[in-house]
Design brief:
It is a single chain. This protein is mainly alpha-helical and 75 residues long. The chain has one domain. Strand 1 and strand 2 form a beta hairpin. 17% of the residues are buried. It is built from four helices and two strands, in the order ββαααα. Helix 1 crosses helix 2 and helix 1 packs parallel to helix 4.
Length: 75
Amino acid sequence: MGRAFINVAGTLEERPSVIERAFQIAKSGAVSTVAELIAKLTAEGYANAGQILGGRSLSLQVTRMIAETRTSAHL
């Protein structure tokens, strides 16, 4: 499988995997549910986000990240 690249400010940078990007978004506070996260990833072009994050282990891990981010933002 080839590497995916994105154009960032005129330079090509390697695009993060769907899991890496999911963790980035979950930790950013931009979403409050896994469903919102999957929708955001899909909008960014990660067509397989629902399949990858649909597993119990990853779903729980991302849910915890979202909850921790939202809890620390309210402190």
